[in-house]
Request: fold
Amino acid sequence: MSLVKIQLFLKRMIDVTGALVGLIVLSPVLLFVAVVIRFKMGYPVFFRHQRPGLNDKPFELIKFRTMTDERDENGKLLPDSERLPAFGRFLRSTSMDELPELFCVLKGDMSLVGPRPLMMKYLPRYTTEQARRHEVKPGITGWSQVNGRNASSWERKFELDVWYADHWNLWLDLKILMMTLVAVLKREGINQPGEATASEFMGTGQDCQSGESRLNGETQ
Reply:
């Protein structure tokens, strides 16, 4: 067995063990958050959306819902900032909205560490180089998340994602997990300056627009 296959096997074992332990230890937190969302925002409690995984294969992402479905008099969803209540902001600032993704890790669609799974509609907008971020499994946290998160430009995040795909190893994963813990405690880089959520990626060299959630009900 090659060194790469051994590392991939160990990575999967770490993913399964970490996800199981996380779900068991955090089960009271998961239950509490689900109950609060139910009473504050109603159903659904979870946000489900199809995302591209390893080699662009689609899978269903699951997160805690953080935004309401409030609409204007014409039935159009209100801007993100008006649909993101205080509890939703708290969930995002602590990354607690990401906890249900541990089920995606158990299923094998995601890893604890890897590029964030973005929108399916972004696939044709990537450059050939940017698309290489899908050469590894998407993760709950990743190299770009601990180096700026949503405060970085799309191009910078994709550059970091591709770097991770090229340099992945178990020690790098452990480093990222430790850096993630520090970033979460400091609540750094949650949103882009002046925006409630990350702007939509329109393609390198193109203008970006905010309010992706107005099209999909939530954002990444």
Q: What stands out?
A: Helices lie at 3-25, 27-41, 80-83, 86-93, 101-107, 154-167, 170-186, 213-216.
